[in-house]
Write a sequence for this structure.
């Protein structure tokens, strides 16, 4: 599986998250690692195997009432739900409105692993956590913005 699209998106989104929430690069990468895990590198925008109108949608695989709210947001702002603008915009909306506690928890994280874990616990609340894979995606995100190999990252 190629990670080029994910890396390119992270080079654009991580600095925006850093500015938006006063996060450090590894903290924003922890957020992106979770989203990378949820959506197969930001390319599987609808839950695999789910019936239309069911399952998770978007970068975060928003489900249930959050899926409905995400799709409504897209209608209101006139963005295609597949777009980067829609997914980033809704992520920011949720983090500012209902998930401020997640922003604060990630901001306190001292390293990439802790930031990845804080975002999963506060925002994703996954049924199957798969933290190893979330951390793998976070390392890819952080390496993309630091222009290093993810294999060089040990934080």
């Amino acid at each position: 599986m190629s990670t080029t699209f994910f890396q390119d998106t992270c080079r654009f989104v991580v600095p925006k998250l850093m500015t938006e929430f006063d996060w450090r690069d590894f903290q924003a990468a922890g957020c992106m690692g979770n989203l990378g895990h949820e959506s197969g590198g930001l390319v599987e925008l609808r839950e695999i195997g789910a019936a239309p109108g069911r399952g998770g949608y978007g970068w975060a695989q928003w489900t249930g009432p959050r899926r409905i709210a995400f799709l409504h947001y897209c209608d209101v702002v006139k963005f295609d739900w597949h777009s980067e603008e829609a997914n980033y915009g809704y992520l920011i909306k949720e983090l500012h409105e209902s998930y401020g506690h997640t922003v604060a928890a990630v901001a306190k994280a001292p390293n990439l692993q802790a930031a990845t874990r804080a975002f999963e616990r506060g925002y994703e609340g996954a049924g199957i956590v798969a933290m190893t894979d979330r951390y793998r995606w976070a390392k890819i995100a952080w390496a993309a913005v630091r222009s290093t190999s993810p294999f060089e990252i040990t934080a």
